[in-house]
Amino acid sequence: MLNIAFIAHDRKKEEMVNFVTAYEPIFAGHQLYSTGTTGQRIMDQTNLSIHRFCSGPLGGDQQIGALVAQNEMDLIIFLRDPLMAQPHEPDIIALLRLCDVQGIPVATNVASAELLVRALARGDFAWRELVHKYKPETVE
Length: 140
Prior knowledge:
Layout: E1 3-8, H1 13-22, H2 24-27, E2 31-34, H3 36-45, E3 50-52, H4 60-69, E4 75-79, H5 89-102, E5 106-107, H6 110-122, H7 127-134
């Protein structure tokens, strides 16, 4: 079972709900997290149980980032709106940086999300062991 987070900017929330609904049977076998509104909208349209954090602008991105920093997140699907400025852009950049540091796969659009979820469905997610095998012990 993997820990998977869903985040979607306002103009991408419907797209996220449609995506998660399409892959509901795959996500059902995992521990799910989300920022507030995104998680509520997904739960309203599916039978999935999702641990909801605050909305992104109110700290939800940072709460998910804390799990990434503690190496407790396995996959993030973050449907970003590249055409709209976000007031909490520094939080978004910090989350993406943490994912890069920890080697956590992040899908920022439906095409990359499709690839990751299809790999998940096939069981091709042994990347966690590979990341830990080749990762330096500490960075100072």
